[in-house]
Amino acid sequence: MELEPGTPVFLEELVARPPQYIGRTVRATGTLHSYSPKTDRAALVDGQSLLLIDTKLLGVHQYHIGQTYQLIGVVVASAQEDHEELPKDLLEDVRYSLDIVLQARVVREVDGLDMAIYRKSVVLLRAFLQDETKTAITNPV
C-alpha cells in the first residue's frame, strides 16, 4: 500500500472549502490550541482559522499547547461528536468548519518555523508546479 504525500494547504483554505478537500491527503501547519487524550482530538489554529485533528493514528505523543506542529493526513467528513469538547469561546474568535476533520498519520513539531516565509514558499511552489504542468502540456517529449 503506497501512501500519498501531503499537499501543503493553509488552514483558511480548508475552512473556506471543506467539501473540496474530503478524501485528499494534505499537510497542515499551525499552532496547537487544545488536545484531549480522552477523545484523541486536537484543535490546530493558524491566524483566524481552526482545524479539528483526529490523533488516533499517531499513537502516543506528548503534545504541547502553543507549539507549532505540521501534520499529514486525510481530510474526512466530521461527525457531531468530533467537536463536542471544543471551547465555545474559541469558536467565537476563529473561522472553522465542523464538516471536516484531519485524520492525521504523521506529526512533527516545527517550532521556530517562520510562518510568513513558509507561506511564501508554498505559494511559490504552487506557481512553479503550475508552470511545469503548462510546459509539459505545450512541449510534450
From TrEMBL:
GO terms for molecular function: single-stranded DNA binding; telomerase inhibitor activity; telomeric DNA binding. Pfam families: Ten1_2. InterPro entries: NA-bd_OB-fold, Ten1_animal_plant. GO terms for cellular component: CST complex. It comes from the Eukaryota. One of its GO terms (biological process) is negative regulation of telomere maintenance via telomerase. Gene3D superfamilies: Nucleic acid-binding proteins. PANTHER family: CST COMPLEX SUBUNIT TEN1 (PTHR33905:SF1). This is CST complex subunit TEN1. It comes from Coemansia aciculifera.
